Known about the structure:
single chain, mainly alpha, DNA polymerase, domain 1, hpI Integrase, Chain A, 2 domains, two-stranded antiparallel sheet, 14 helices, 59% helix, DNA recombination, DNA-binding, DNA integration
Amino acid sequence: MSVAATVKTWLTHLAVERGLSDNTLKSYRRDCARYAEWLERAGIEELGDVTTSHVENYVMDLRRGVDGRQPLSASSAGRALIVARGLHKFALAEGLVKFDVAAEVSPPATGRHLPDTLSIEEVGALIDAIPTSDIATPVDIRDRALIEVLYGTGARISEAVGLVVDDVADRPEVLRILGKGSKQRIVPFGSMAKKAVEDYLTRARPALSKGKSHALFLNQRGGELSRQSAWAVLKKAVQRAGLDKDISPHTLRHSFATHLLEGGADVRVVQELLGHSSVTTTQIYTHVSAENLRQVWRESHPRA
């Protein structure tokens, strides 16, 4: 069944079986027409040919504004997504498609502040403020390794403290991370993070270990470093570096994503590295990068 025919059948169902008001049906009809038009431009004739990526790209195009259309607000794009979801859910219930590809697509965030980030220079200052020379304590060496891992891989703080020694020993070029929902992902293990972890495993972890934990990052009692303690590690590093910013472990994750996008990385690659289930979650970092570009333009262009 064509997209247009499926839309017509669904709208009839909503009017007859569900008894929706004329105003609600008018809104649904408008959003369905916009979705059907977008699918037609994408060369899709039947709803069964739609993928999750198509639905995600549709929402992204609504937010950006394409083909001369005005960009929609996050709330308006979210409502349009609800209609598209309803159409796909109906098609699945009627046996017109095998899968509901729209069910897992996240709506754009509304009223959400752009995440705080550090510049590349600020990240360097944060890490370099932690000593690594002969006077460095085992805790200093651990702290530097932890921050290198957080920034170098984009791991959440809970993911970083949940690492075990085998996670870095089995595959020296990549890091195996257990994320939300017990979903495992593999991220590249950069040379600087790798060197810091190797230094920690050689010079510091043996001094901290009491032989009772396989955790990679240990506290001074030999147990697994807690999320609260990891937070304190970062706060101490911020003070050492003299940075006048309110920085959390998530700031390093935000900075990791932003710096990748500014360096030319594809948003879907960043999505995989961060472990986001939907690319719409990752899209917020493209807004950060765009704002950085606007700031540079305002400061540099003679007619800004």
